[in-house]
């Protein structure tokens, strides 16, 4: 049986991905330190959906699917020896790395949050890479990056998949080349993902590690075919001003008739992907690894692009909820254009799940079902930069 470690497998993307891979026939081992659940305690907010403790989730998964997923608590970046021993003992074919602090607003809350995000994310990524080298195993690392490394301005071109073709002119001679697309992070969180890219590039060059970096768009949706199978398997649903992502926040706000919180003019164009497609893309990435001599494989893991105010209008028309145009708490372009190349995952067989009424209604229904768990004071984005 093909074996994978899912680091961060208790989180919003990691949990449904673990179930998806388990159902697809992989032996899955989840590694998580529950830091995301602890951040809920710090922020005094909880997932809108009542997520069960991991042990209970895994027991129910075994009951409904017959498949066993093991779990190990390791704080990646802090417990290097335990991580290394795990690799040596389990010899996984691939590691999927979701285990980072993933909120831009959280990373900008204070100097403490900036430092935590940098220390946590960079130590985690470096420890995984160093452990793969020290284990002497040929393990394919699949990492979740973000479209945000490219920056959220108008590039004026279709954003390529990680590498930019360049021509350098010197003394009348023109040389062609290809470089890592210049990163332009808009928050400390995005900056750590840009730094991750350099770590990958180095370990790939120096140690010939096989690495796939997935620059993912904003994930929306909550349930997948696997998480729907039992209420105990339900996925996390963040709606608060730090961890909630824009489309899910709008759908949840519509469900409780809370005016949709558009920042600025809502002229920001962003790339999106449904959570079901996140799971499929990870499987495709695992099954199409780079060769040993290949450079880091970078894929744009997104399926569609929308302008924030268009999404707000669409949901307002569908549900009758109002729209509140608020001062933008973030430093970002008020309006931008965005074109993205995502050919590689499509060529591997991804059939995109695009924004559709049924899926939006499903998210809204989930939000409505659990609306009594919503603390409306936690909806505004209070982290400013
Ligand atoms: N959610 C999105 O819209 C989105 C978009 C683009 C990229 N991503 C990326 O995908 C990845 C997963 O995102 P998510 O939304 O599932 O986040 P999440 O916070 O819900 O999940 C991350 C999981 O990793 C665990 N974790 C974090 N640091 C750890 C560590 N050092 N050791 C062990 N476990 C650790 C957390 O406890 C949590 O369960 C992140 O790297 C994020 O940057 C997410």
Automatic annotation (TrEMBL):
Domain NAD-dependent epimerase/dehydratase: 4-292
InterPro entries for the chain: Epimerase_deHydtase, NAD(P)-bd_dom_sf
Gene3D superfamilies: NAD(P)-binding Rossmann-like Domain, UDP-galactose 4-epimerase, domain 1
Source organism of the structure: Microbulbifer echini
Organism domain of life: Bacteria
Pathway: Bacterial outer membrane biogenesis; LPS O-antigen biosynthesis
Family statement: Belongs to the NAD(P)-dependent epimerase/dehydratase family.
Protein name: NAD-dependent epimerase/dehydratase family protein
